[in-house]
Amino acid sequence: MVVAASSKDVRGNQSRGSSTLPPSAMNWQQISEMLKQRREVKIRPRGNSMTPRIKSGQLLTLTPNIDHVKIGDIVFCRVKGNYYVHLVTAIDGKRFQISNNHGHINGWTRTVFGKVIKIEE
Question: CA separation (Å) from 62 to 21, 93, 103, 104?
Answer without folding.
Answer: 16, 23, 23, 22
